[in-house]
Amino acid sequence: MYQKVNKVRLAHKEGRMAMGTWVQMASPEIVEVVGYQGYDYVIIDMEHGHFGMDMATAMIRAADATGLTPIVRVPNKDESMILKVLDAGAMGVLVPGVTTKEQAEKVVRAAKYWPNGMRGTCPWTRSTQYNATDWSAHVKWSNEETMVWLLVEGEEGVQNFDQILTVPDIDGIMMGPFDLSQTLGIPGQLDHPLLHETLQTMVDQAARKNIDIIAPMLLESTQQEIEKSTHKWRDLGCKIITVGGDRAILSIGFRSFLDHAQKATEAAKTKENV
């Protein structure tokens, strides 16, 4: 039976941080570029990306072709959407807007087959190689390897964090520092000691339940800034980090190239006027 390698789990076994990125643009080609550059995983973003299931499936195929582990951020907590992306071959889901234990339980129920959950069953899907895979083997592999990541958001999510952590089969939780800073009454103060202390507490709480805290998108644009941010999240105890994203990287890259060209033009003008 053909089985894909979960690169996030592999990184953990090898004792290194799993490195991934976001793709929000409707482009299998960008997903291929990410895979060929050596990332472990990609988050295919259906919440902020302007595409539907057909394109998402093509992007999952592109991830498979390059050995990249595809995680899909679904647009909402709808159980049928979770089922669709997993049937299409996603190796995990990132579900936004989770604020309670009950919501987390529903996500797990939708993402895992019985006895771990109640995921809908159909042997004729892409995830089973269209019934080329033994069903019982597929169920066992999926329950072990399919990852459930949650975006725990807002004041209610922070208040219920302890309870959410008690739900079995959650693999990772992503916390947005901007959202968390606002909840703590220090909006945008990302270097504030209270934010750092709160994040450390949450990482430690999650680790005790064998749940990873996923470092969110790093928007830094220089090598020094990226290294500093990566070290910060690693020191907090994070084992999964999301570096940039296609829109951010393109924007930063185009801006940088334009700046260099404009400076060169200005320098040439200055020389001419001397």
Automatic annotation (TrEMBL):
Entry keyword annotation includes Metal-binding: yes
Q: Which UniProt keywords apply?
A: Lyase, Metal-binding
Q: What is its EC number?
A: 4.1.2.52
> Which InterPro entries does this chain map to?
Aldolase/citrate-lyase_domain, HpcH-HpaI_aldolase, Pyrv/PenolPyrv_kinase-like_dom, Pyrv_kinase-like_dom_sf
Q: Which domain of life is it from?
A: Bacteria
- Please give the start and end residues of each transmembrane region: none
Domain HpcH/HpaI aldolase/citrate lyase residues, every copy: 20-220
Enumerate the GO terms in the molecular function aspect: lyase activity
The answer to whether keyword Lyase applies is yes
Report the Pfam families cross-referenced here: HpcH_HpaI
Q: Which family does it belong to?
A: Belongs to the HpcH/HpaI aldolase family.
PANTHER family for this protein: 2-KETO-3-DEOXY-L-RHAMNONATE ALDOLASE (PTHR30502), PHOSPHOENOLPYRUVATE CARBOXYLASE FAMILY PROTEIN (PTHR30502:SF0)
**Protein name per UniProt:** 4-hydroxy-2-oxoheptanedioate aldolase
Provenance organism: Ammoniphilus resinae
